[in-house]
Structure formats: structure tokens, C-alpha cells
Structure to design on (88 residues):
């Protein structure tokens, strides 16, 4: 089974997808990946992937705690990753 950490292409793809049009998101996600990419679990990567699938403004609202995940995003791993992103 291929994991995020065992596949350099997956890591590169995640970093590329984390680049955002909204500068604030781009800075937060880049800093987070710079500091934590090497230790991300597959659950962390799943949560981050779900978050970066959002449009810029809803993503920023979640990162800045202006809202909490709802619906398909209301998962323990998403909440846990948001805690870490908010500290980045």
C-alpha cells in the first residue's frame, strides 16, 4: 500500500495543490507544509486534501476559525488538522 510519505509524487502533488489564489491561504498552507510535511499521516493528508478542495474564502474562514467544518468536512481528522493549521 502506498502512503503519502512513501510516494514523492504524492507529496509534490499535495504541495502544488496547496498553492492558492488568495495570498493568505497560500502563506498559511506553505508555512504549514514547510514545518510539518515530513510528519503528515495519511489521515492528515486526507483532511488537508478535503480542505484544499474548498474555494479560497471558505477555506480561509475555516483556518481563521470564522466557522467550523460542516457536512462532509465534519470529521475528526479535519478538525484535528484545522487545530494544527490555526497554530501555523
Amino acid at each position: 500500500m502506498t502512503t503519502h510519505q512513501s510516494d514523492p509524487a504524492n507529496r509534490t502533488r499535495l504541495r502544488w495543490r496547496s498553492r492558492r489564489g488568495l495570498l493568505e491561504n497560500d502563506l498559511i498552507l506553505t508555512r504549514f507544509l514547510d514545518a510539518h510535511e515530513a510528519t503528515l499521516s495519511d489521515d492528515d493528508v486526507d483532511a488537508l486534501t478535503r480542505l484544499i478542495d474548498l474555494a479560497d474564502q471558505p477555506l480561509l474562514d475555516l483556518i481563521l476559525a470564522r466557522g467550523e467544518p460542516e457536512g462532509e468536512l465534519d470529521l475528526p481528522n479535519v478538525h484535528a488538522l484545522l487545530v494544527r493549521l490555526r497554530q501555523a
About this structure: The helical segments are 8-17, 23-36, 42-52, 56-63, 76-87.
